[in-house]
Write a structure and sequence with these properties.
- The chain contains nine helices and 15 strands.
- It has an eight-stranded mixed β-sheet.
- It folds into two domains: 158 residues, VC0802-like (2-Layer Sandwich); 180 residues, Vaccinia Virus protein VP39 (Rossmann fold, 3-Layer(aba) Sandwich), CATH 3.40.50.
- The protein is elongated and about 70 Å long.
- It starts with a strand and ends with a strand.
- The protein is α/β, with parallel strands linked by helices.
Length: 346
């Protein structure tokens, strides 16, 4: 059954967290209608299974749950709406609750969040038939989001576990390489490629396996290729260290991968001082790689590729037959801004 859902996302990037959630829902074949999007908040109408899907795969969401009500009439309007609602379904087999609040982007500064929590908590307590308030370990948490659009009250069903991917940071892996992508971004770009569970996902410039680790973590059948045998050995060591047996690893030129029918390609080709393109200029390498990637992908398959922002590869991608789905810019440091492109075959 369709429900109104909300997702609170990290504010570290303007577009990537929202894009990751949309991509996850599409990868799972979950139909959804976006009702509102703003900094740190995405609201959709979808089956409640969307909450489990996002919580299982996303690293850029913070909390998500079921929207109870929303208003642009301030605290008085919110209290009025709640007083006329049947909230019993939100307290089934629950003995305690807490109300938290979140202000987004400095909105509605005149609203005191502590007072808001107490007032909304009071209304909920009156309607909860004996359920008590417990601020330390509540059975159910309600979140009041204060944004430029007004107030939203929802029941939190999932919260991201802090430090979930910290153990996979590059410096904590058995084999380190300085050009390896951080796991949070690696998970995001894997999700942007929209692989369903058990999909075959290829990284043709896999290095020591950072992207493969995140693909394996969401139950993709991860295949890595690299022209450098040392990188393949490093990727195998890293994957096995985390209990992620690769579906396949090969020493191969990314422009001549001996495969067909791959459902997703996710890759961060070599660039920068610490990376090697084995003597080939990156633009020339992309002129060979993108048509090859198109032939490797299955129809309607996705390619998510990262490259320096100044590298104009869309014309190459278009000539190869790719359709641009989305593009994101990510500042890394003074001399590098990444462009993240999501392309689709067919």
């Amino acid at each position: 059954m369709k429900a109104r859902l909300f997702f609170v996302v990290s504010g570290e990037h303007r577009t990537l967290p929202h894009a990751e959630i949309r991509a996850i829902l599409q990868s799972q074949g979950i139909n959804f209608k976006e009702t509102a999007a703003s900094t740190k908040l995405l609201r959709v109408t979808a089956d409640s299974s969307a909450l489990n899907a996002v919580a299982r795969r996303s690293v850029m969401y913070e909390q998500c749950g079921i929207e109870i009500t929303a208003t642009n009439q301030g605290k008085k309007g919110l209290r009025s709406q709640l007083s006329g609602m049947d909230l019993s379904s939100h307290f089934v087999e629950r003995r305690s609750f807490a109300v938290r609040s979140l202000r987004i982007g400095g909105a509605l500064r005149y609203i005191d969040r502590s007072k808001l929590e107490r007032e909304i908590g009071g209304v909920l307590k009156e309607k909860s038939r004996g359920v008590r308030v417990n601020l330390d370990r509540p059975d159910v948490t309600f979140l009041c989001v204060v944004s430029s659009r007004g107030l939203l009250l929802g029941k939190v069903t999932h919260s991201r576990i802090p430090g979930l991917i910290a153990s996979r940071r590059p410096r904590k892996r058995p084999v380190f390489h300085p050009s390896t992508m951080q796991p949070k971004l690696a998970r995001c770009v894997v999700n942007l490629a929209r692989p369903p569970e058990r999909a075959v996902l290829l990284d043709p410039f896999c290095g020591v396996g950072g992207i493969l680790l995140e693909a394996a973590a969401i139950r993709c059948r991860a295949i890595g290729a690299d022209a450098d045998p040392r990188m393949i050995r490093g990727a195998r060591t890293n994957l096995r260290h985390y209990g992620a047996e690769p579906f396949g690893l090969m020493v191969a030129d990314a422009t001549k991968i001996p495969m067909r029918g791959v459902e997703s390609i996710v890759t961060d080709p070599p660039y920068g001082r610490e990376a090697s393109t084995h003597g080939r200029k990156l633009y020339a390498l992309m002129q060979e790689f993108l048509p090859a990637a198109y032939s490797v992908l299955s129809n309607k398959g996705y390619l998510c590729i990262c490259c320096p922002s100044e590298l104009r590869i869309m014309s190459i991608a278009a000539r190869a037959g790719f359709k641009l789905i989305e593009s994101h810019l990510l500042y890394v440091h003074r001399s590098l801004t990444r462009r993240i492109l999501v392309l689709r075959k067919g």
